[in-house]
Amino acid sequence: MPKRKYKISVIQLNLNDVAENNLKKCISWVRDAASQGAEVILLPELYSSHYFCQSEDVDNFALAEPLYSTSFVAFSELAKELGVVIIVPFFEKRMAGIYHNSAYIIDTDGTEAGLYRKMHIPDDPHFYEKFYFTPGDLGFQAIETKKGTVGTLICWDQWYPEAARITALKGAEVLFYPTAIGWHPKEKEQYGENQYGAWMNVMKGHAVANGVFVAAANRIGLEKYIEGTEGIQFWGASFIAGPQGEILAQASHDKEEILIAEVDLDLQENVRQNWPFFRDRRIDAFGDIVKRAIDK
């Protein structure tokens, strides 16, 4: 019988360093999370490098790695050693000219339980991801692991209720969001509170609307590596929410932290029985959702 309860963890880190150092750091923090009882562990988006999408620079493609190379080997060995599931977001080189923002879901025996490629790709000031990443082609997935059935979406995906809904309908018990989001320093005073609040609220809404647990792992720290710019101040605030949007664990804006919370599938079932949103969906009336716009 599958477990009705298991512990999940998100790790919030400053990752403004070179790949080798970031890998060593993440391995150490995953060990710490596992020692505290975590069974499914999430790292932030693009864990192995600074957030290079602040500029459009072909030299940054050298940061990408082919499938099943450095990151997979290291975390596969670690997952098997510790008996945990690890979600590893990385910069994937698929072939010359095709790159993805991806995540391995590595099972407790070190095998690949699944691979997700970020579906929604932003293009905002200092978040120039369309220059680097081809949109994902693997769709939204619920991945069965030896600890539970999980769904992984990545950062910009978190703003789309359709992505959360489809992943939950496929059976995901938890929506994991590896993230790299922050403030433009000049905008923080005027817009920062609302921007951060919107980020929290939309994912809490996904938890409520779908009766799922939601876990988001963000970076912290000011990453300023382009001359003449103020960089991005990553706002941290990683969190885990329950199926009614209740906050089970919350990180600070500026400290490296491990968050751990329990996924209780009996609680999830009870919530869905009392708030039967899936039952009452009018799927016969939703055809327009696949249109780019609904023209008058």
From TrEMBL:
tRNA processing found in the keyword field: no
Alphabetically ordered keywords of this record:
Hydrolase
MF terms from GO for this chain are: hydrolase activity
Question: Which positions fall inside the CN hydrolase domain?
Answer: 6-265
Which CDD domains does this one have?
A: CPA (cd07573)
Checking InterPro entries in the record gives: Aliph_Amidase/BUP, C-N_Hydrolase, C-N_Hydrolase_sf
Q: Which PANTHER family match?
A: BETA-UREIDOPROPIONASE, NITRILASE C965.09-RELATED
This chain belongs to which protein, by name?
Carbon-nitrogen hydrolase
**Species assigned in the record:** Flavobacterium chungbukense
**Lineage of the organism:** Bacteria, Pseudomonadati, Bacteroidota, Flavobacteriia, Flavobacteriales
